[in-house]
Design goal:
Two copies of one chain form a homodimer. By secondary structure, chain A is an all-alpha fold. The N terminus and C terminus of chain A are likely disordered. At the A-B interface, helix 7, helix 8, helix 9, helix 10 and helix 11 of A face helix 7, helix 8, helix 9, helix 10 and helix 11 of B. The structure holds a DNA duplex.
DNA sequence: GCTTGTTTAATACAATTGTTTAAAACGGTG
DNA sequence: CACCGTTTTAAACAATTGTATTAAACAAGC
């Protein structure tokens, strides 16, 4: 007797998430959402005013789920920065490539990244910028403060770009490789391992570059 | 007397390119295209059958323009592979981030990458796979054949990912950085330079990894 | 000049969209 | 039971879409 009467608002929010994520704002229809939520067609306008307001609330919901779904692990004072960076990348890839029941939130957030609306600014402030700031601190630990700020940000972008690639261009990757090749060498764990190794090498090289330019002559070990 | 009578077909193709690129297939309307082309509404169906056929022909046109717009430079036998890789990256970034009058073709192709339709398979075969094969040969020159094939492909994906990032998430980058910061350190040339340095360091490290694992024990079986 | 095939034009059509409306159903409260 | 505010329902509305239709304009050949 307690669950048969669920709030219509909640039913709408739950039903709208996957639909918006799959179809996008424009192609998603109020009729399909209401049908999936098993409520009357007029309910969206009754409870949310219009379709766009419903969308904004769904985005907010997706943001909360995205954080709680794949949280960063706890670190102690002497956790090495390389370990932190690995955790950070793992978390990012998990959030981006996560599959399963709740993956609609990832898709929806990615849609906002690819084609920002007014909701994206909210995501930047509440989700992206804090997450990037964490990576920035890690890189500061690894690189030291001789490397200028914008160079760290470029590295963060390069890492995030690789994670994003497999989410965004997954269809292309499937078309480029055979499907058996993809299943062999492109599961989530191997993708993570490659991104980490690739990026860590580049970062370490950046550090050496600034080290050697500081010492100038004595260091003969610049890696390239 | 010669130019006042342009083919209606061509007018439609030229007008449809920017519209499809800006709005996407679904949101682009036949009415807007016909209005921009200054032809009658029924012309699309008369010359192309339906909207989708027009779209396919526009994609084909975009592919041709994309290649001719930013071609790869000519190489001689003794062009060093690092130079080739730089040319390759420069070409890819130019094709992806290219602005100006003809940039609608880039946008349109990127739309196909992000959400592949049947037209994408054509793009893979005619545009992406040949271009990736070139990079694969370059990396083979740099890395040698001790590095397995899929590792080269992972590197290519990582490079392409970084190029794609600034095209795909340009709006996000603008939101994350201040606009003045973006204009300072994120113009095309600096993006290219960073991607090159970042990726080349990672690739060289990969080479050293396989070199050392080869030398340290004569048996070549101890990869994992 | 008339005929014939091709192109252009204006309009109509059927389907789908978000939104509104007005009445019915519901749930307490006196 | 009667009343009243809230919620739900079915239907309608206005706008927009791709496409079809039908007739007019045109060009070319005889």
């Amino acid at each position: 007797m307690s669950t048969i009467k669920i709030n219509v608002r909640e039913k709408l929010l739950e039903a709208a998430g996957p639909v918006f994520s799959e179809k996008g704002f424009e192609k998603a229809t109020v009729r399909e959402i209401c049908q999936k939520a098993d409520v009357n067609l007029a309910s969206v306008n009754y409870y949310f005013g219009d379709k766009e307001q419903l969308y904004l609330e769904v985005i907010c919901l997706a943001k909360q789920m995205g954080v709680s779904r794949a949280p960063l692990p706890e670190w102690t004072e002497n956790t090495p920065p390389e370990q932190k960076l690995e955790d950070w990348v793992v978390t990012l890839v998990r959030r981006m490539l996560g599959t399963g029941e709740l993956s609609w939130s990832n898709h929806l957030i990615m849609r906002e990244v690819l084609r920002p609306t007014q909701a994206c600014e909210h995501l930047v402030q509440e989700l992206f910028r804090p997450f990037v700031n964490i990576a920035d601190k890690i890189l500061l630990e690894i690189l030291g403060d001789d490397v200028p700020d914008y160079r760290r940000m470029q590295c963060i972008f390069s890492i995030a770009a690789q994670c994003q690639f497999y989410r965004v261009s997954g269809g292309l990757v499937t078309l480029m490789l055979g499907q058996e090749e993809q299943k062999l060498h492109y599961n989530t764990e191997q993708i993570i391992e490659h991104i980490l190794q690739f990026s860590l090498a580049a970062i370490k090289n950046l550090k050496h570059e600034y080290l050697s330019s500081e010492i100038e002559s004595s260091s003969s070990l610049n890696r390239i």
